[in-house]
UniProtKB/TrEMBL annotation:
InterPro entries given in the database record: Glutathione-S-Trfase_C-like, Glutathione-S-Trfase_C_sf, Glutathione_S-Trfase_N, GST_C, GST_superfamily, Thioredoxin-like_sf
Protein name, entry field: Glutathione S-transferase
Molecular-function GO term, any one: glutathione transferase activity
Span of domain GST N-terminal: 2-89
Domain of life: Bacteria
Keyword terms of this UniProt record: Transferase
Originating species: Pandoraea nosoerga
C-alpha cells in the first residue's frame, strides 16, 4: 500500500499532523510536492485536486491518495490512518473518542489561524494588523486557556491512560496535541512562558511525543519543515504581548 500525501510546499500547516502520524510509526509515504517527476510537484497537486473527472475530489490540501481513493480533511485522514498505523485503540468507542479529540484540536488550530487573519484569509497580515492584535489578545487571554483547561482535565481524569489522551498508548491525537503546543511556543514565546507550570500534563504529552525515537529523529531531519510566517503558527512580535499562564 502506497500513501501519497498532497500538501502545499514550504510550510508545515495542516499537513504536518498527517506527516507526524507517518513519521512516528516509521511508515513510508510519498509527499507529492517534493517530487519532480510526472504528476508530482505543485502542478501534480493542483491537477489532482482540480481533476474534473474525480468522483471524490478534496476541497483543499491536505489530502491523501491511496490507490484510486482521495481522502481529504486532516481529522478524516487521521481517522483512516489511525487503525492502520496503530495510533488508535481497537474499540469503536475509543476510535470515536480519539476522533473527537482531533476535531477539538482542529477547532483550536482554526482559531490560531484566525488570530493573524481575522478579516479574510486572502488578505495579507499586513492588511489586518490592528484587527489581528485584538483577535490574538482574546485568543491568548481567553480561548487558549479554555482549550488547555479541557485537555488538562481529560488527562487528569484518565489515570489508566498512562499520561496519554487515550488507552495508555500514544494516539494520533497525542501527536497532534504535541504539534499544537510546539507551534504555540514558536508563535507566542512570551505568552507560553508559563504554560508548563499551568498545564503540566499537556506539557508532559508534548515532551513524551518529542522523546519518541522516530519522532525525535524526524524533528532533527530535513523532512521537518521549520515553523515560518507562511504557516498556521506564525510569530509576529506585535501579537505576543500577554502572559496568561
Amino acid at each position: 500500500m502506497t500513501f501519497e500525501l498532497f500538501y502545499w510546499p514550504g510550510l508545515q500547516g495542516r499537513g504536518e499532523f498527517v506527516r507526524l502520524a507517518f513519521e512516528a510509526t516509521g511508515t513510508p509515504y510519498v509527499e507529492i510536492v517534493r517530487g519532480t517527476g510526472p504528476g508530482q510537484g505543485l502542478d501534480g497537486l493542483m491537477q489532482t485536486m482540480d481533476d474534473p473527472d474525480c468522483v471524490d475530489p478534496p476541497y483543499a490540501p491536505p489530502f491523501l491518495r491511496v490507490g484510486d481513493e482521495l481522502i481529504g480533511q486532516t481529522a478524516n485522514i487521521l481517522a483512516y490512518l489511525g487503525p492502520l498505523l496503530g495510533l488508535v485503540g481497537e474499540s469503536p468507542r475509543t476510535r470515536r473518542w480519539v476522533n473527537q479529540l482531533q476535531l477539538t484540536l482542529a477547532d483550536l488550530v482554526a482559531e490560531v489561524h484566525d488570530g493573524h487573519h481575522p478579516i479574510a484569509s486572502r488578505l495579507y497580515y499586513s492588511n489586518q494588523r490592528a484587527e489581528a492584535r485584538r483577535r490574538t489578545a482574546d485568543l491568548i487571554e481567553y480561548r487558549l486557556p479554555r482549550y488547555f483547561d479541557y485537555f488538562e482535565r481529560v488527562l487528569a481524569h484518565n489515570p489508566e491512560a498512562g499520561g496519554w489522551l487515550s488507552e495508555g498508548a500514544m494516539s494520533y491525537a497525542d501527536l497532534s496535541l504535541f504539534q499544537v503546543i510546539a507551534g504555540l511556543y514558536y508563535a507566542f514565546p512570551r505568552a507560553m512562558s508559563g504554560f508548563a507550570r499551568a498545564y503540566p500534563r499537556c506539557r508532559a504529552v508534548h515532551d513524551a511525543v518529542a522523546r519518541q525515537p522516530l519522532v525525535a529523529a524526524y524533528l532533527k531531519s530535513p523532512r521537518r519543515i521549520a515553523f515560518n510566517t507562511t504557516g498556521i503558527f506564525r510569530h509576529y512580535k506585535a501579537l505576543d504581548r500577554t502572559t496568561p499562564f
